[in-house]
Amino acid sequence: MGNLSFLTRAEIESLGPPTPEELEEMQVSDAFLRDLALKHVASLADPTTALVADKLRLPLALTDELLYQLYREKLIEIRLQSALGLTRYAMLDAGWERMSRLQVQCGYMGPTPVTLKDYTYMMRLQATPSRPASMNIIRNAFRDLVLPESLLKTLGCAVNSRSSIFLTGVPGTGKTAISERMNAACVGSLWIPFAIEIDGQIIRVFDQHCHEEISEQRANEYDRRWVNIARPMVMVGGELTLENTDLVWSESSRFYEAPFQMKSNGGTLIIDELGRQRVSSRDLLNRWILPLERRNDFLTLHSGKKIEVPFEQLVVFSTNLDETEFVDEAFLRRMGYRARLELPTPGAYGEIFRRAASAKGLSVEDSLVNYILGKYGRAKRPMKCCEPRDLLNRIADICMFEGQPLKLSDSLIDIAWEHYFGKAHAFDEYQEAPKVQTQAAVM
Predict the structure, then answer these.
(1) What is the topology classification, in CATH, of domain 346-421?
(2) I want to staple 388 with a disulfide (CB 3.0 to 4.6 A). Which of 42, 286, 350, 356 is the partner?
(3) DSSP secondary structure code for residue 194 in this structure
(4) Cβ neighbour number for residue 332 with a 10 Å cutoff
(5) What's the alpha-carbon Rg for the chain, to the nearest Å?
(6) Tens digit of each residue's pLDDT (9 = 90 or more) over 187-213
């Protein structure tokens, strides 16, 4: 397993993965490493040892060893030999011929990959945050939401256990908002590789759309094949299909992209709007039964070979459908936690409205809150957690359209209410609009 298995969690967090000192330590075949180095030489206008090392994310000494092997094979030539890191190279005809064959096999040209064993070890080691979330951390993660105390405790237990949680409730009760904030309660960062090598095949793991790199000035050297990131949050919704849950093969690039659940390892995976995907809900849930129970997943290479990868993330399922229609007991008993979100009380609604208004820089009088609560009562309309934000957005739209400063009043609430919940627009009070004279008519 290389030189990672001898390190503790604390050492990895403080020092980072150790820099390999020998090519054999990486346990990636020499042939693959030489081919990858050759690709980078071919891609650079003026390749030097230092530039190739930067592309490979390997130490200069190891890069120099790989380039010398390519030189011995007569694939590249040395144009100018200088101090370590400054030696210049150029491609030879045999090197270009090798390049054309390599592109057919694998077009990957990124940093040097790590082995699946090293990736698995690191994910298992870092899966659980080193410091459990306290109630203060949970309150801070959900500070902009108004939630029952009992729900905060449930969310805290789910975060610390790294188990799954099933959020249900009618639309507008805040399921998505809660899901999006759960990852903020997972403290710390983790190391992930840029890519993984398996039998000469590459799986790209690091994704700038899902992963936020933490740039830190480190006094010590570390293995730059790994990148330190904030714990990731990946959300998928109605666009999800079963094909999305397996390795994504690019015919043009000739390497794999890790599926979304693999990119969420060490963080939070949110399956939003469960039951509205373009695939049978039962088939989708059956896909997750074993990974939820065993904390590992199986992916398939296009050759048919199956590989086992860690399934180490907090999984959040949310739906506003009746779960009994598409979820069976076998799935529910593998679910770590369940929580049903209810509609807010008048007091909770008022607090949500005040916080939403404060976020827009508005102060709210108690009389105005009572006025809007009265409108709900007269209309016999249930209150929802999302509606204060939506009504305030309508008020902002009205003020912008009329060219007046943003403010709150009973009349603006009435207009926003009609815009949001709908109003019949009859022609009873229709007045013909004044005719606008064109420039040609005036002349």
Answers:
(1) Helicase, Ruva Protein; domain 3 (1.10.8)
(2) 356
(3) S
(4) 13
(5) 29
(6) 889 999 999 999 889 999 999 999 999
